[in-house]
Hints:
Blueprint: E1 4-9, E2 25-31, E3 34-42, E4 55-63, E5 76-80, E6 117-118, E7 135-139, H1 141-148, E8 156-160, E9 167-172, H2 181-184, E10 187-192, E11 209-213
Amino acid sequence: xxxxxxxxxxxxxxxxxxxxxxxxxxxxxxxxxxxxxxxxxxxxxxxxxxxxxxxxxxxxxxxxxxxxxxxxxxxxxxxxxxxxxxxxxxxxxxxxxxxxxxxxxxxxxxxxxxxxxxxxxxxxxxxxxxxxxxxxxxxxxxxxxxxxxxxxxxxxxxxxxxxxxxxxxxxxxxxxxxxxxxxxxxxxxxxxxxxxxxxxxxxxxxxxxxxxxxxx
Length: 216
């Protein structure tokens, strides 16, 4: 889907502070005080939602391109992003640099304070391994419903649901190229009241956005 925007960054000085807007993956992690955060947005989706309509379900699908092996688990959580951003924004860049910290704050201003969903259940519970090729499905119905109800579409923000150093999760980005390239890239599946007729959807490209229109 050509309208997909994604990036990740942290305060680490090994290149991560500048952000990674064109990498093959997005990631989240905790490295001491270095909070790696990721952003994902499907531009234009809000224009396809019936204003005030009902979103029956919205599922965000993310693929783990390589096995995660840290012993403390690599789950992350997804929050509604509340301010606009560009792929080239990085740690300490606008619009979140003026907040309580230099990264995105879960303060109800920069990003929603409460996570909509998380990937905790995908760890095996023993070694907390999330295997290569795992497809993580996150229920983001509440966020997409907010867009239908008038919220601006600033996409999704991800960060680690744990706080141990090394707690990180890699996810294929919209630039990913590898095994099952198209299927592995981020996908948003929406079932609900949409504006276009089924014949005019065209799905906006391969694998990135699926829309199911419901008639009242």
